[in-house]
Each structure stands twice: as C-alpha cells, then as structure tokens.
Amino acid sequence: MSTSVLFDVPGPRARLRNNVLTLASAVVVLGIAYLLIKGLADKGQFAGRLWEPFLRAEVWTGQIFPGLIATLQAAVVSAVLALLFGVVFGLGRMSDHAWIRRPAGAVVEFFRAIPLLLLIFFAQAGVATISGYTLSVPAFAAVVVGLTLYNGSVLAEVFRAGVLAVPKGQSEAGYALGLRKGGVMRIILLPQATTAMMPAIVSQMVVLLKDTALGWVIAYEELLNFGLKQIPANFGNLIPSAIVISLVYIAINLALSYLANVLERRSRRSRRTSATVVTAPGAVGVNSAAAGTDVRF
C-alpha cells in the first residue's frame, strides 16, 4: 500500500467505511435541518407578515444599513489599532532586553486572560469609577478600546509565532551580509512571516468583526442592536430578524476572507523571482567560440 507523508492511503474497505460515515453524517445534518425548519414553520415563523418588513427600503436604509455602518466603523478602527498593538508588543516579546521583553509579555498575557465583555465594561465605566469623577465614555470608544486590547494581544502572539517560524538560516544569512537586527527583521523575517501569518490574522479579524456585537450590552447601536432589538420591537419578528442579520454577517465575513486570499496571492507572486544561470564572460566566449554560436548581450 502506498503511503503519504502524514498517513497511509486508505484502502477499499477504509474508503467504503469513510463513505458510509460521510453519508450517515449528511443524513443526520439534513435531519436536524428539517426538524429545525419544521419547528419554525409550525410556530408560524415563515409567515409572510414577519418577512415583509425586509422588503421595505426604509427598513434597510433606516435601520439595517446604519447598524452595519456602525459595526464596520468599530471593526475597521479596532482592526487597525489591534494590528499596531500586535506588532509593537509582538516584537517587544522578542526583544533581547529583559526590561522590554518582560513588560510586553505581561501586558499581552494580562489582556488575553480577561474576557472581552469585561474589557468593554471597564473601558466605559472603569475610569470614572477609579478616578471618582463623572466621566462619560462614548460607547464607540469603549467598544474600540476593548476590541483593541483583546485582539491586539492575540495578534501579538500571532506575529511572534510567525516570525519565529521563519527558518533560522534566513536571519543568519542576513547577519552574515552585515545587517543589524532591525534590518534582518524588516527586510528578511517580516516579509516571509506575513504570508504564513495571513490565515491566522484573517481569522482573528473575523472574530473581531463578530465581537463588535458585544457593544449591544452597552447600548452601542450596531447591527445586532438594530436587528434583535429595534426591528423586532417594531414588527414582532425576532427569529426572521436574527436570520437576516446572520446572513449579513456571513456575507461580510466571506468578503473579508476573499479579500485576504487575494492579498495573500498577490504577496506570493510579488516575491516570486525567476532564477537565471550566470556564467563568467570568459567562459561564455570560449564555449561560444568552440561551439560556433552567436552570443548576444
């Protein structure tokens, strides 16, 4: 039996067993979906009057689109700040100086250990509670701060792991050429690590986008706030609203993943070079004269 690098290629009996298990799993999933749809239908959740509001332009322009814009604003600002936070503290954790490496590690581990919801609550009410002054922190700022601290700490570990995953010979070659540590990091390590880190970064950006929904608990008017609070309050269609809002989130995340894949393919092509054989001029002349060929430069 032929083998691959990771596992033995399944034989006829194993393929038959895998096909049977796949078919059984598909039947179970379809059965669950049928029961779910049937239960919703029995409860009248597919009634036209519940879905009709989503055919109105004013529902989309007045509620869904404003919530979507607020979600994207918080996600974009938080993503930029989280990436900067991750780069700074990820590189800080790899510093040769203990007075930089240890505080950076403590900050990353601290914010990774705190639930995001608590970070958002503390960003809005913690400063005023500690200082004793009545300070009104906007909900947008609280959401951005919480998302930045939590996701930035996760991205710091992603950056560190990506840089450390580059073969050690790459940095040694850079030092042999006379580059310092900053040059090796900027010119050699980071460009190679970026491609390896891209899937993890995209996954974290998707998590960040979905976590903007936690702003609902501090009255931040984002997509989930409109979809599960304001629209059902007006039309009494909680389940249809949840389904529509879920589809909007899925569409945004698919678009984000597609954009990331395009950027990854472009980055791979930009670093792809064609290797050519370089021959000494004297050797070219001798070989060409002996062979009677025409040499063009």
UniProtKB/TrEMBL annotation:
Residues 68-260 form the ABC transmembrane type-1 domain. SUPFAM superfamilies: MetI-like. It is found in: Cell membrane. InterPro entries: AA_ABC_transptr_permease_3TM (IPR010065), ArtM/GltK/GlnP/TcyL/YhdX-like (IPR043429), MetI-like (IPR000515), MetI-like_sf (IPR035906). Coiled coil: none annotated. Keywords: Cell membrane, Membrane, Transmembrane, Transmembrane helix, Transport. It comes from the Bacteria. Signal peptide: none annotated. It is a multi-pass membrane protein. Belongs to the binding-protein-dependent transport system permease family. This is Amino acid ABC transporter permease. It comes from Sphaerisporangium dianthi. The lineage of its organism: Bacteria, Bacillati, Actinomycetota, Actinomycetes, Streptosporangiales.
